[in-house]
Specification:
With 272 residues, the chain is mainly β. Helices cover 8% and strands 36% of the residues.
């Protein structure tokens, strides 16, 4: 077949197809119809499956999970507090009422505080103490005193490590006595109601002891050992038996007769 005949047949076929399509797109009144496209989404759910609602996205907000921050927790233990109870010392200048009292009544002893000193006068014989209420252990004790005892058996001094006299009795203590007439210092324990062996030491000349005048008696206690000095001169160191290493203390007169007297200018205690 000649080539021009083939072109003619192909063009006629194309015009026929265009005509069919144009006729479909025209209404009866010849106006074009707008084609609407409908897409149906078929969701297939397997039996028993749960369909979750779709996520809602607002705009283009991107939600980023914040990293979990573990705050560092520092546990600080409460500091250990060691409470140390400090026993106040004694600095009795006798410018006013004194805390020192005798366990005995006025028929046995009288204590008068006047003119910056305490005067202790015995009403009978025996060891008569005047004690402070606080118990002390290791301490430095100093007493400025004047002795007026009159006989060799009389003495003045300090009582240490005494038990509580509030029950009306004293059964345990240690005495340090200055015996003016003898010129000695005596240290003796009283244990469970009985006297132990005394330690008696002569007062050295270097102590320059002044009879009927003021002298200074100094004691240092450490774990029951007692160092005794007179006017800053060491006289003796007592390491014998003691009832305890802590107890009441104070000054005393060992009276050989009623009227024996101790005058105290000051009495100090410095806990160690």
């Amino acid at each position: 077949m000649p080539q021009w005949i083939q072109y003619l047949i192909g063009g006629a076929a194309a015009l026929a197809v265009i005509g069919v399509v144009w006729g479909v797109l025209l209404k009866d009144d010849g106006e074009p119809v707008t084609a609407s496209t409908s897409t149906t989404v078929v969701s297939t759910t397997e039996p028993g499956a749960t369909t979750l609602p779709p996520a809602t996205t607002i705009g283009t907000t991107t939600t980023t999970a914040q990293p979990t921050t573990s705050e560092a927790t520092t546990t600080t233990e409460a500091p250990t507090t060691t409470t140390t109870t400090t026993i106040p010392g004694i600095g009795d200048q006798f410018d006013g009422p004194t805390a020192a009292v005798s366990p005995f009544d006025a028929s046995v002893v009288t204590v008068e505080v006047m003119n910056g000193r305490a005067e202790v006068t015995a009403g009978t014989t025996g060891v008569i103490p005047v004690l402070y209420p606080e118990p002390f252990g290791d301490a430095i004790i100093e007493m400025r005193f004047r002795s007026d005892v009159g006989t060799a058996a009389g003495a003045v001094g300090v009582m240490l490590f005494a038990d509580d006299p509030s029950d009306g009795s004293l059964t345990d203590f240690l005495v340090v006595e200055v015996r003016e007439i003898e010129g000695t210092i005596l240290v003796a324990p009283f244990l469970a109601g009985a006297w132990g062996d005394p330690v008696v030491t002569g007062i050295p000349a270097g102590a320059a002891f002044l009879a009927d005048d003021y002298n200074v008696l100094s004691l240092e206690t450490a774990s029951g050992v007692v160092r005794v000095s007179l006017n800053s001169v060491l006289v003796t160191e007592y390491a014998g038996p003691v009832p305890t290493t802590s107890g009441r203390l104070g000054f005393l007169v060992t009276a050989s007769a009623a009227g024996n007297r101790l005058v105290v200018d000051y009495f100090t205690v410095e806990p160690r």
